[in-house]
């Protein structure tokens, strides 16, 4: 059965790659996957460009484990040397945009869901394939896991988030807070030392930011990371600038929420700080979670992830684990190995059986 599941998964992935599926343009690939699930006899619902399915013997009184992956991709890099929508003819390697991020996880988790679909289990299983992940859109995981989404108040108890991690388990994930700073001065003629130099205000603020250390340190992720990454100022060499803008890139830990970080940053600066988004929060798995226990029992290596995913939209206990290598994501000539998908299907099944054994 596993070999058949693997073969059919690889075939689905090859067909997915042939369909452009950039964020906000996932309709065609969503329809492709939906048609295939119907062909396999999997009952499911489509919400926009998201797909949600429950195991055949779903029981509302039982806890639920969701299997989550995203069906969208970034645009192809200009440096591709291959057709990004051609998976190639190599039996051992599947090339193409989205093969590694996140097609491998999509088809592997779908195969695992099919494996358990008709079994009677002490837990429910749910397959969640989402859109808009790469651009943190409002109609993907953000809506699916909201009170208005299909789960409503009864959110999944645990979630496996499929992302390329070499099937190691991320038990924490940094968030993302991007802040625009704007220093305001008074323009004047540089030769007469007139005005108030906004650049100097910004530089003082940047120095304060550079020297700052956040007091609360995560036991898994360490300190909050922060860097000023852009600055823009001035109109001419002889004009004192009255405006200077800069960008702060903050990578939070679970010790802070983004509103708290923003307040602390503003206390350091005379410049006005404006967040681009306050919802890209950090996440961490509870130390007593069945997900942690299963990873330990299966000798799965754990780590803290520096990259964001659907996890930042999820309030249930979760881990991030999937086939492929994160270093291939968003790079030209993306690929995933057939063996990685086959191994992932087996490891996911063992992992879920371990959870069932432990609860």
What does this structure look like?
It is a single chain. With 359 residues, the protein is of the alpha/beta class. Helix content is 29%, strand content 23%. The protein contains eight helices and 17 strands. It has helices spanning 2-17, 27-39, 99-116, 141-144, 198-211, 258-266, 290-297, 338-358; strands spanning 45-47, 50-54, 64-70, 93-95, 124-130, 158-161, 169-173, 177-184, 188-189, 225-233, 239-240, 243-251, 272-275, 283-284, 302-305, 317-320, 335-337. α1 (2-17) packs across α8 (338-358) and α7 (290-297) packs across α8. The longest helix is centred in the C-terminal third of the chain and has 21 residues, at 338-358. It starts with a helix and ends with a helix.
Give a concise summary:
The protein is of the alpha/beta class.
Core attributes:
4-stranded antiparallel beta sheet, 8 helices, 17 strands, elongated
The stretches of 5 or more residues where confidence is low (pLDDT under 50) are none
- Quote the average pLDDT: 96
- Widest beta sheet: strand line-up: 1-2-5-3-6-16
- Helix count, per DSSP? 8
Q: Please estimate the helix content.
A: 25-40%
Total number of β-strand segments?
17
**Rg from Cα:** 23 Å
What is the approximate shape?
elongated
